[in-house]
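User: Continuing from earlier, I have the next pair ready.

Assistant: Great, send them over.

User: Here they are, in order.

Assistant: Folding the first of the pair now:
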Amino acid sequence: MDKIKIIECPRDAMQGMEQWIPTETKLNYLKQLLRVGFDTIDFGSFVSPKAIPQLKDTGEIIERIGPEVKGKNQLLAIIANLRGAEDAKRFEQIDFLGFPLSLSETFQQRNTNKSVTEAFEVVKSVQDLIKVQEVQQVVYLSMGFGNPYGDPWDEEYIFDFVDQLKGMGVRIISLADTIGVSDPERINFIFSKVIPEYPEIEFGAHLHSRPESAFEKLEAAWEAGCRRFDGAIRGFGGCPMAEDDLVGNIDSSQIIRLGKEKNALPSGFDHAEFERSVIMSAEVFPK
């Protein structure tokens, strides 16, 4: 039985918060998350501080976390351009660079101030930059399950994008339901089509959802062959453009529940440390 990969995303949980989270608080929280046994922690972002001021201390945090992280956990940082990739690759603790690529031209412009064509050029430039290093690029296909902006969208777009990314050497692609428009049937349908078609690519699910429908969406992706899932403790964060305020990141506890039910949690996962992380999250993300 394949084991589930849990990608914990404190970065996605923090980035939209207006109230500044002290660097020391972020650092202590990351240290706690590192004790849990997640496959990967999406911990920070190398983008313009003007765009995401909450994460302007990402470089300081990764410097202070120390080299002992390497070999114990995998760390992922989000980038939006080649300069961000160059900044991130200076830190040997970082294993993955995440780039948001949208099937929606409108959302790509809003999110990264680039056209889709320009965004593909960034992906290629980052691949060229990291090809001789032990760093991989994770491409997030936002609007992977529908487009609310009126841009053209159908499932064939996903195949077209994946074909281009495959040609560039990208081997991890996460389909993102950016504003929570998906349902279990569509999630299952799309993953059941792309996963067998591209066996050399690892597909992930970065789903945003109302809490009451989160688990059935996870299960739909699992049944279609997906084994990589993004979440955030207590479901913090998500896309501020979602019309429903209850739509946010999927609570990591729901992914853990899925892993338990499928007997697929990795042996090193520490439930006690996870519960400690949940308790600490109340200090990091005050109501």
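And the other member of the pair:
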Amino acid sequence: MNTRSTTVRAFAAASIGNFSVGFDVLGMALEPLEGAPLGDVVEVSLASDKQDRLHMKGEFCAFLPIATEANLVWHCLLEFRQIAEFPPLTITLYKNLPVGSGLGSSACSIVAAAAAINAYIGSPLEKTALLELCGRLEGEVSGSVHLDNVAPSLLGGLVMCAVDDCQQLPVSPDWQLVIAYSGEQISTHTMRAILPASFAPGLVLKQMAWLHEFIAAGQSSDWQLAASKVQDFLAEPLRAPLIKGYLTAQRTCLEIGAEAVGISGSGPTLFAICNSKTAPSVAAWLERNYSINSSAFTRICRPRLTPVTIEYL
């Protein structure tokens, strides 16, 4: 049990899941160039009334289940109660990411909660076990275990995720990722349900070849070639028509000068790979044209290379 502080705070960053060329196996953590961090915060402290408590705050907490028992952060606490003995805790989730945005919102809450609880009780779980726990909890939302959001939020950077292993890949220091959330809420479960049980072998082989070329280009630091390989031939053709304004936005961003444009996770957020010269113009167009309500936002980010952060308060 942690004795250095009364509160442990963890921040987990938003991420791009799928990353177009790597459906379900490739994800990137995000760090805005300016303004507030993009992600969720969880604080853990000793409960004053000898009973576990969960409090929810933040801009988007109203979109979470009202019942404590339905919250993924609560599920995370219950998982740790199966692992170790520790006193009752008060857990506060600051929900700063919109639900159903395609930015790994559920993964952020899970990773921040798992990291904070684990640190508070003395870190009984090592990195691999922590990742496995987070993946299992994330599977409750999507219907199946995939690590392309939890892994980058936990580890940082661009991460290739296998079933039982994750590897951080090199990423261009000059890439700027323009992230645009339209304000539309889309269920990950729904967007996965529209995909077929299997894809044509030729299409899968094409996607695998492009993923191989993307990885090889990154290993040799040919970032222009790597960006040209960021395309999704599997899920995007089925999902894109269901996301309001996406196809127009994708075409326009490419015309402005983006090197690649894709759907972040299941959408509706899109990401555009840009350089420092084109990113402001792409962001300005998206801010004017890809917003459908007041929840929408556009941010210019870079890959976040640092893992989930822990503070002892």
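Worth noting for the second one:
The chain has two domains: 7-169+305-312, 176-302. The chain has a mean pLDDT of 94.
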